[in-house]
Amino acid sequence: MSDAPRDEPVDLSVSRSDVVFAGKIWDVRSETFDYNGKDTLREFVDHPGAVAVLAIDDDDRVLLIQQYRHPVRSREWEIPAGLLDISGEDFLVAAQRELAEEVDLRADTWNVLLDYATTPGGNNELIRIYVARGLHATDTPFDREDEEADMQVRWVPLDEVVAAVLDGTLQNPSLVISSLAAYRSRVDGWASLKPADEPWPEWLRLHK
């Protein structure tokens, strides 16, 4: 449909951009830009971006991990994910590394499920979610620490994950978005899946 809504990139003139807080993982940035002829100031979390993996086995079960998340004081059920914090690292390589490091798995088949901006009003975090299939154990288990040391792993049917999302039992954003997208894609025989090397869409280009 030619009139279907779509996000549009906007290239505004930024007159000032400063890091006002330098954190361990991400920073807070203050920027002044020209919007409709007026200087406008906004502060936001400057995020390196991330990848996440919806790993699905031959029985349509999704691999979930339970990990403690301090800002929300909760052990959330999530999908494997990690920061794009290695300069120049290919996104697919990062996703493969995270799957191996978090759950000791590798996959024969990789596809892009979707890309999304997590909180566009407050940070510039972009996440690419892959679907990984044809799963096998890695040769060497990974030694985990900090919040990953006591992670729980569970295989849950996709239908059950979606039901838990819809009743509010599961609330992690990447899990919510990926499970609903996968559920819909499965209806169409997974026709919406994209190649693993799919370029970022223009509206998500930002700093990528």
Automatic annotation (TrEMBL):
The keyword Membrane does not apply. It comes from the Bacteria. Residues 45-183 form the Nudix hydrolase domain. InterPro entries: NUDIX_hydrolase-like_dom_sf, NUDIX_hydrolase_dom. GO terms for biological process: nucleoside phosphate metabolic process; ribose phosphate metabolic process. Keywords: Hydrolase. Gene3D superfamilies: Nucleoside Triphosphate Pyrophosphohydrolase. One of its GO terms (molecular function) is hydrolase activity. One of its GO terms (cellular component) is cytosol. It holds the Pfam family NUDIX. This is NUDIX hydrolase. It comes from Subtercola lobariae.
